[in-house]
């Protein structure tokens, strides 16, 4: 490395005025040194263009203004952005004239929240990324929302995913069955807990043309956010069979291995990020794990591409030797494309660090959409409308969230029964019984709609028909069902926590639905914490044994402490099952005819004190593509 390279403070951003390029929104370029601002300085070196996105989350259609569709630029200017049709146009224009162009992602490409991708197994996102020419991606935490098997066998390789039959391997826009990704996933710090093997390779090597028939290697090191499979802060990707290791150590380990293999140009692509102010193409006061890594990562690493935080920044941060290198993040939902230019020595393959530049380009909607990519997105949107209108079962009566005097509802009891049923479909983790919060003390109820008997507005609906889309939207927010070991005492105390004393001294009732194996009576006139006599809490007709351990099923969201029932977090030996939406579809479809479950699983032995019953007001109907709430303190 050049000992004369300009050294900058941790918070400095070296920028020069941007040059407007027709049809492409270009902000200021970050330069590693003043030499990199002089085009003549790069003469004789191999120019490599690195284009990257992150956290697309399946947002193929333009996101709404209040859902990531507007970003802030220099001087507070607002830009309307997003949509893969526009993304493709910007990508194509940025690639023009760049002989060595590499396009990658920092992860969370799929496991999207829009109904049109989520309900179709996230296969639409993979088809679009294939068409965009994505070459590789880091594993994001949401790529693990189903399982490593789903990521590797289905999304990468295109093998049918049997748990979602017949709603898997959809027909894509070409009329063919889903064949998987044309690119690969990588991570150096996500491994199987039982044997310590990585779930995917830690790094990849790409080759660029150096002229004269010579190729130069560039190594890409990949890591995933620590703890994303362990639960706290991460609900959807909770995977008890997996573990993560320290991502800084993993990145440095992969960099050392690449150097042993003779690779001299190395880039980190990581699904972890930070925050550096509101301007999408600069950075101030950087904070977060990505910047901690930047201060520690091997100084031979030439650039650090980040994600996960849903932030946008473009900075030059000194490595441990004080030499600047890009640290960038490209927002989310297709808002931004980051472009890094590396200059490689033709003979050695080393990166000439003082000539590195980086720019974040807003994916504005003031350009024509790419017709091929937009048609793929539109095809999947139309397909999702057809899927929504697909009848999957019949019902004999109303399935609603409206509670009776004891806090029970037909939909709540149905969901509790489904949760236990779902555990019986797997080879392990069978639950003795199940429960689900109906009106939790904090967070959002998983019951997000009703299934009335009378037909709805969809033209395909009839009285007593349950459509796929109706079942999908009434329950769940992409959280897994889990079976855990819990003592009878912990379960009893959890039920007692349905009544919680508020700061003003009032008592709030936060009912929990239980599966058909459970029945109990309670006395609302007794003190909080003493309303359920254990002798009157029965499991399959027998009084609960407070000292015994039961296998109990619920939503991971609840046992990971996001719902506000502390006793329900006292568990061990978790086993994952289906994601809530998908498992519920399977349950309804398998049963064929759904009768409203009988009420009476929880009954009061005395009249409720005035004001003690929940004042249930169904929330406003949400759109099909409404993003589920994040657990408190969690990041995407």
UniProtKB/TrEMBL annotation:
Coiled coil: none
Segments for region (Disordered): 601-636
Protein origin, superkingdom: Bacteria
Residues of the 5'-Nucleotidase C-terminal domain: 395-570
SUPFAM superfamilies in UniProt: 5'-nucleotidase (syn. UDP-sugar hydrolase), C-terminal domain, Metallo-dependent phosphatases
Signal peptide coordinates: none
Calcineurin-like phosphoesterase domain mapped to chain residues: 51-311
Keywords on record: Hydrolase, Nucleotide-binding, Signal
InterPro entries referenced in this protein's UniProt entry, alphabetically: 5'-Nucleotdase_C, 5'-Nucleotdase_C_sf, 5_nucleotidase/apyrase, Calcineurin-like_PHP, Metallo-depent_PP-like, TAT_signal
Pfam family, one: 5_nucleotid_C
Keyword Nucleotide-binding included in the entry's annotation: yes
Family, similarity comment: Belongs to the 5'-nucleotidase family.
Protein name: Bifunctional metallophosphatase/5'-nucleotidase
């Amino acid at each position: 490395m050049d000992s004369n390279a300009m050294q900058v403070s941790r918070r400095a951003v070296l920028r020069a005025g941007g040059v407007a390029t027709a049809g492409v929104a270009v902000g200021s370029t970050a330069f590693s040194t003043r030499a990199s601002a002089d085009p003549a300085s790069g003469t004789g070196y191999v120019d490599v263009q690195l284009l990257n996105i992150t956290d697309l989350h399946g947002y193929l259609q333009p996101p709404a203004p209040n859902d990531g569709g507007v970003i802030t630029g220099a001087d507070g200017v607002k830009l309307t952005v997003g949509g893969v049709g526009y993304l493709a146009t910007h990508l194509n224009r940025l690639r023009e004239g760049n002989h060595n162009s590499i396009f990658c992602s920092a992860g969370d490409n799929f496991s999207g929240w829009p109904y049109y991708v989520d309900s179709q197994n996230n296969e639409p996102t993979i088809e679009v990324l294939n068409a965009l020419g994505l070459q590789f991606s880091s594993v994001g935490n949401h790529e693990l929302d189903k399982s490593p098997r789903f990521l590797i066998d289905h999304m990468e390789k295109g093998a049918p995913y049997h748990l979602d039959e017949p709603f898997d391997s959809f027909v894509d826009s070409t009329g063919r069955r889903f064949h998987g990704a044309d690119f690969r996933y990588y991570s150096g710090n996500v491994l199987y807990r039982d044997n310590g093997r990585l779930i995917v390779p830690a790094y990849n090597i790409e080759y660029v043309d150096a002229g004269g028939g010579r190729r130069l290697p560039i190594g890409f090191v990949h890591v995933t956010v620590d703890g994303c499979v362990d639960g706290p802060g991460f609900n959807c990707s909770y995977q008890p069979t997996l573990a993560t290791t320290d991502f800084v150590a993993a990145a440095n380990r992969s960099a050392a291995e690449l150097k042993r293999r003779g690779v001299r140009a190395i880039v980190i692509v990581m699904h972890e990020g930070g925050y550096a102010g509101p301007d999408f193409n600069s950075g101030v006061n950087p904070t977060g794990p990505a910047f901690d890594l930047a201060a520690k990562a091997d100084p031979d690493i030439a650039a650090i591409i980040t994600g996960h935080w849903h932030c946008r920044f473009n900075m030059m941060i000194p490595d441990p030797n004080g030499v600047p290198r890009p640290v960038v993040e490209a927002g989310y939902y297709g808002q931004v494309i980051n472009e890094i230019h590396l200059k490689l020595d033709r003979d050695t393959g080393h990166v000439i660090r003082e000539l590195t530049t980086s720019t974040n380009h807003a994916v504005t909607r003031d350009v024509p959409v790419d017709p091929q990519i937009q048609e793929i997105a539109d095809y999947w949107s139309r397909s999702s409308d057809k899927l929504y209108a697909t009848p999957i079962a019949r019902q004999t009566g109303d399935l609603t969230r409206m509670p009776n005097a004891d806090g029970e509802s037909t939909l709540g009891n149905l969901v509790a029964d489904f949760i236990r049923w779902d555990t019986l479909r797997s080879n392990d983790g069978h639950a003795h019984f199940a429960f689900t919060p109906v009106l939790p003390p904090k967070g959002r109820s998983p019951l997000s709609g009703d299934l009335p008997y009378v037909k709805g507005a969809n033209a395909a609906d009839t009285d007593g028909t349950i459509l796929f889309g109706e079942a999908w939207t009434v329950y769940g927010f992409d959280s897994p069902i889990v079976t855990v070991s819990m003592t009878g005492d912990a379960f009893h105390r959890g039920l007692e926590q349905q009544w919680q004393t508020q700061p003003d001294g009032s008592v709030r009732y936060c009912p929990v639905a239980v599966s058909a194996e459970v029945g109990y009576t309670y006395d609302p006139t007794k003190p909080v914490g003493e309303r359920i006599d254990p002798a009157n809490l029965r499991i399959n007709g027998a009084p609960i044994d407070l000292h015994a351990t039961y296998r109990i099923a619920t939503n991971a969201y609840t046992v990971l402490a996001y719902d506000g029932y502390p006793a329900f977090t006292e568990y061990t030996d978790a086993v994952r099952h289906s994601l809530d939406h998908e498992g519920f579809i399977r349950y309804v479809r398998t049963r064929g005819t759904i009768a409203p479950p009988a009420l009476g699983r929880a009954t009061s032995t005395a009249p409720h004190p005035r004001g003690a019953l929940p004042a249930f007001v169904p929330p406003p109907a949400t759109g099909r593509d409404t993003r589920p709430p994040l657990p408190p303190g969690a990041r995407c």
